[in-house]
Amino acid sequence: MKIDIDKQLQVLKPEKKNLVLAAFAPIVQKLNELGESYPEIQEMKQTPERSDKAKRFRIDLKKAINTADVKRKDLKDESLQEGRAIQGVFNHIKNITSGTVDEAVSIERFYINFELAEKAELKRERELELEKYEMDGTSLNLGEMESTIWANFLLGAKRGYEEKQQLEKEEVERIIEEKRIRELHQDRKDSIINLWQFMPDEEKNSNFGTWENKTWLKLGRFLSIEKSNYDLEQEKIKQDNEKLRAENEKAESKRIADKKRSDNKLKKEREENQKVEDARQKLEDEKHDLKLAEEKLEKAEADEKRRLTNAPDKVKLTAIANYLAEQVETVSTVEAEDIIKQARDLVINFACKM
Questions:
Q1: Whether pTM exceeds 0.85
Q2: Helices in 311-330 by DSSP H: which ranges?
Q3: Neighbouring residues of 154: CB distance < 8 A, sequence distance ≥ 6
Q4: pLDDT digits over 226-249, tens only?
């Protein structure tokens, strides 16, 4: 973009041209500087920095154009004052000569009506032009607007429309980009949900949709490594627990076996002690019974002795023979048996003769 206003000022007299140049020169210089910087912005990639520079460019450009418009109005007011002065001279001359120019007045009125029709047609055409840029010009005096003013006005409407379109486009792009970031964030989060327990706390509230792909892949590798380490640790803990459980089961089995052996030993000792106690008790009982039997035998022998002492000799000899018969089984030799039998027989034979 390069602005040169010399050609537009060729129709002016030197003093007027210099006046307009002096008024617009700083503005033209600013616009040309902006024009030189714009290609650099166009070549930049779509980044927040490019967006900021484009916004700054648009603001500076609009500011320069607004300044030019102010200068335009100031200079035009001066020209209008000059025009009104010239028109006043003309009106004075016209008033003086009005009584003799009736025909000229009629002709003038015809052309005035013709001018009004042309202006109405021009107004309609310009309204249609403004409609292209979504602007309603029905309330504006477009038919009376000078060509240069109309050109600037139309340019302003076009720029305003393009700026609005650009803003709307940027807003749509922003909404699309935000949606893309949200969806990418959710997709990425869903893809590592089974690894979420290994996510560093400082990253859990991050917007993963804004991350570069290499940064995201790096995080994925980190989480996979953390999970592998965790799985290895859990497997080691499981093996240690299995080993400890086996050792505990072995120790418990040994304890149960030892207790069983101890209980069996104690039971056996108790049984042995019971047997000894039973044997002792039995012995005591037998001793007691034997004592009773001995006492009974002694009493019976005493009774028998008393009875025998008082009995006849034949009875005494029979008792002796019975006693000798009982003693046969107590000896261990044949000779002793024969002697006892012979003695028994002698006693029996002698008792029978009595």
A1: no
A2: 313-327
A3: 126, 129, 130
A4: 999 999 999 999 999 999 999 999
